[in-house]
Amino acid sequence: MEIIRPIKTEQEYKLALAKMESLFHAKPDTTEGDMLELLALVIEDYEEKHYKIEALTPLEALKCEMEEQGLTQSNLAQRFGMSKSTISEILSGKKDMSVRFLKYLHHDLGIPANVLLS
Given 1.20.1600.10, 3.40.50.11600, 1.10.260.40, 1.25.40.10, which CATH number is that of 58-116? Predict the structure, then answer.
């Protein structure tokens, strides 16, 4: 079995990704499956250090969710029983989101609470 080592360079990272792709359909509890799990761990470690993705702000999460669900400001205002101007002020950053609005976003749009509370 090939020895898997921590990834230290971009070249090693690319090689590890290629190897992982070749093992992607390995069955669990096999030599190949074990190698796939180990590669996933060292790749994750490298990515956390070099490709860290910052968490979305509540406003960014709302805008993303609106885009994914095809919602307009008017749709959102109607859905939450708010005026379009209030939604516009929230989306432009002129008005803070109320606790009630954050609850709507969590329960009705499915935005995770930890994102909304960040």
Answer: 1.10.260.40
SS3 at position 32:
helix
- The CA–CA distances, whole Å, from 23 to 38, 41, 89, 110, 115 equal 11, 14, 50, 34, 34
Cα 70 to Cα 78: distance, rounded to the nearest angstrom: 14
Domain residue ranges in the chain: 10-50, 58-116
**pLDDT tens digit string along 4-49?**
999 999 999 999 999 999 999 999 999 999 999 999 999 999 999 9
Instruction: Read off the pTM.
Output: 0.59
With tokens 């929230």, the residue in question is: 90
